[in-house]
Amino acid sequence: MAPFDFHGYNGRVRTAAALAVALGAAAVIMVFFVAPEDVDQGISQKIFYVHVPIALTAYAGFGVGAWKGLRLLMTRNERYDLESYTAVHQGTIFGVLTLVTGAIWAKASWGVWWTWSSNQLVLFLVLFLFYCAYFMLRFSIEPGPRRERISAVYALFGVALIPVSFFAIRLASDFIHPTVFTRDGPQMTGSMFAAFCTSWVAITLLAYVMYRTELAGKRTDLNLRELREALAR
Amino acid sequence: MSAGEKYVAAAYGVFLVFVLVWAAIIATKLSRLERETGELVRLAHARTSGEQGDG
User: Who among B4, B15, B47 is closest to A42 (CB)?
Assistant: First the structure.
């Protein structure tokens, strides 16, 4: 395995972490003190500013996992296996958060924690469970090129579910889950949209910092294992 | 605090707890890596001094 570039990692991740903290603080101020309350949903609509960016980050995690899987299949470079695995792991963590914050919002708005009649919810659950099975598949195979290839192909298959899940609300005939972004643009005021964008960028940067930190930890683990084996010889 | 406000606090609280738990997991992992690196450094030093003794 190639030596880990600590200097490059430190510079980019430190900048992203500082920006995530600053934008996170700005997002909280904008959400609670600038953006007006929604006429229909009242205060519970504020959950939108954390729930939707988390869901988009989960999609991004699965998307990056698939992209890195594709890169692995194209180049056979083992570094992409770890990157794909870490991205899918991030996507799954944010998937759990999407389901939890979504359930809280559902209870506040609809009076139920979950409803099977919403295609958007069910398709996201299917996507989430698909990627949960990724870990079962991965850890049931011995480490090596075969595991790397099978994991990459599985991550690639899952990415097909992302547009289906994302556009389900527009294609299906259920009107339970709200549609905020339509062909006519975002259905919210300018300050609401600004608060949403700030929150989205902050959570994306946080996810990037988490991804890079987790990846650095896993690479260091592998390097230490190789060093231990070399010293034991 | 109204019911709506409680749900909003719960949603943001879940996210905050998640970030804190993640930071705690990373801190635990970092301390393990630090310990393992220290062990390997000691092993490398012991090996180097052993090789010098042999030579």
Answer: B4
